[in-house]
Fold this sequence. Notes:
3 helices; 4 strands; alpha+beta; 2 domains
Amino acid sequence: MEDIKISNNITTDEVPKDVFESNVTLEENNTESIKEQVVIDKKSEHEHKHVDTSHIKKAKQKRVKNIVLSLIVISFFFFITTIYSQYKVYQLSKIENAKADLLKGEIPNNPQQIIEAVSRHILLPKSTPQVAAVQDANKLVTSQPFFKDTLNGDVVLVYENTIVIYRPSKDIIVAVGDIGSGIAK
Length: 185
């Protein structure tokens, strides 16, 4: 394209009209082609942005979905853990209450109460035992090794073939043995 330079002393009236028109036509054609190129570039950019945007949106949706799913799983875990721990606390309190109820009453001191207390721990023979309280555990231990874990205040129940040592203060059976062989069970 040729540019026509107009000097300061030439006016547009002096330029031949056909040269001026051809120059304007060329400029209009160039402007239109540039506009078309810009429109094409904008369309391609828009298409690229649209593809990139949809990919980004899908990635964000997937990330949000994973986060929500993780929060649900964690919440469910804590819920189950809380329920389980509360159940265990309930069971322990129930056991403690049962123990307290057992110990709430007086320590068994008559033979019938002692037999009932021991029968909660072990099956006893149907016969009536001889019941004796230990007064001097040290003397008893030196004379017979079966009584090695006996303390003062323990109760001894002697049946035909079985002997039971019971500690009423803790509601436990200390030892059980066979009289004929002298072996503790």
